């Protein structure tokens, strides 16, 4: 008699994109924490950080015969291969950062590689925790056919005491880590639903 095969949950691959290029960015720290949490306590979720710093400014003159610069092609391929996305979006002037908008725009060039995928947004910042940037990113998502989870929302005031991050931008706050885990679980469920699968 053959032993029963015990299968784990279906694997969901997440592309993690940070809107800040700063080495000690708190938002980058949120993504590092999410990667650690997924390895420790969210089975079936694999998060890969996708660096947007090599991308040139969007310029359609760089598109030649339907191809893009090598850095753009590599970025678009990672976005296309992912099952869903985790954005860490700081707020600059009530909106998303220039580098993040640039990355979103490059991946939206024909064919749009964001389409029909699940996504979540987290942010850290001042009193509103970067929340206004999230609303602008959600607006872009409507046109891109990008499906953001609605709840839980994650905004973190990075400057409240006690300290939420260490001097290198690593997340310290246990309550924030628990909230981050809930975001990951919600994203996983939604991504599986969009793929027509269950946990």
TrEMBL record:
InterPro entries xrefs: Flavoprotein-like_sf, FMN_Rdtase-like_dom, NAD(P)H-dep_reductase
Reaction(s) catalysed (UniProt annotation): a quinone + NADH + H(+) = a quinol + NAD(+); a quinone + NADPH + H(+) = a quinol + NADP(+)
Enzyme class, broadest EC rank: oxidoreductase
Domain NADPH-dependent FMN reductase-like, residue spans: 13-159
GO molecular function: FMN binding; NAD(P)H dehydrogenase (quinone) activity
Keywords: Flavoprotein, FMN, NAD, NADP, Oxidoreductase
GO cellular component: cytosol
Lipid metabolism recorded as keyword: no
Cofactor(s) required, per the database record: FMN
EC number(s) on file: 1.6.5.2
Pfam family, one: FMN_red
Family: Belongs to the SsuE family.
Biological role: The enzyme apparently serves as a quinone reductase in connection with conjugation reactions of hydroquinones involved in detoxification pathways.
Record's subunit section: Homotetramer.
Protein's UniProt name: NAD(P)H dehydrogenase (quinone)
Organism: Coffea canephora
Organism classification: Eukaryota, Viridiplantae, Streptophyta, Embryophyta, Tracheophyta
């Amino acid at each position: 008699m053959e032993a029963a095969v015990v299968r784990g949950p279906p694997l969901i691959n997440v592309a993690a994109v940070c809107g800040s290029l700063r080495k000690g960015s708190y938002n980058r720290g949120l993504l590092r924490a999410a990667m650690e949490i997924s390895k420790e306590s969210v089975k079936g979720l694999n998060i890969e950080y996708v660096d947007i710093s090599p991308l040139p400014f969007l310029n359609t003159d760089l598109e030649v015969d339907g191809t893009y610069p090598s850095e753009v092609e590599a970025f678009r391929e990672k976005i296309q291969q992912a099952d869903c996305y985790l954005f860490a979006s700081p707020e600059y002037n009530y909106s998303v950062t220039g580098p993040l908008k640039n990355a979103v725009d490059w991946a939206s060039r024909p064919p749009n590689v964001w389409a029909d995928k699940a996504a979540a947004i987290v942010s850290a910042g001042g009193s509103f925790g970067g929340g206004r940037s999230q609303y602008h990113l959600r607006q872009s998502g409507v046109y891109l056919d990008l499906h953001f989870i609605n709840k839980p929302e994650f905004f973190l005031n990075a400057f409240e005491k006690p300290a939420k991050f260490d001097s290198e931008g690593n997340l310290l706050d246990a309550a924030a880590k628990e909230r981050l885990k809930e975001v990951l679980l919600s994203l996983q469920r939604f991504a599986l639903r969009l793929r027509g699968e269950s946990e």
